[in-house]
Structure prediction request, 224 residues.
Amino acid sequence: MTTITVRRIAHTIVNRLTMRRRPLSAPGVRDGAAYAPWRVFLSHTGDLREQPAERSFAAAAEAAVIRAGHAVSDMAYFAARDVDSAHVCAAMVAAADVYVGIVGRRYGATVPSRPHQSFTELEFATATDLGLPRLVFLIRDDAARQAPDGQSVEHRLRQAAFRDRLCRSALTVCHISSPSDLELALLHTLVELRGESVALAAFMAGAVSLPPWGTVGVGAPLVR
Prediction:
């Protein structure tokens, strides 16, 4: 990610956190919202919770979020209730601080009340409409150990169009080939964003001057 992109995303996170939690104040910036764990919403199709069999993409993403000190939000953990699933999905995205899209080859389940839209498309659209910081990881078409396609031609074309829209958007899309790639890339991004958001929060609170890029953010070694 470029310096401008990381700083822009970090600024968005700080703004959302300060609106949601108590305001920051100098010099007690460490007690403020920038240091609170983020709620990271993981958006993915069901097959990515099972594949690859030895360690799934979803499991790798969860490990990265936890290692970065944040909390995982995922529709897979939502309890059943008598509410429109589209509203539930949108509400969970809205409650998050960061959106992470893990996009493979499968289109996935469609929203019952919106049969021409998948849940992953709905989650991305909701995050976009809400101005949520979006981190998108695209699994390469030639990545090994992906589940066989096994979907209709219509869904295959829809997913191809969705992937193309993501690549053509203003987002910085990260291409990955394995769960290990995903864990490393997501962990590194979250650590960078944490450092930058803390620096921005301190600057906004008047506690410190904003340091130049490259002097904040990176903590523990990014190796497994």
Observations:
- The longest helix spans residues 179-204.
- Confidence is low (pLDDT under 50) at residues 21-31, 213-224.
- The domain at 37-192 is CATH 3.40.50.450 (Rossmann fold).
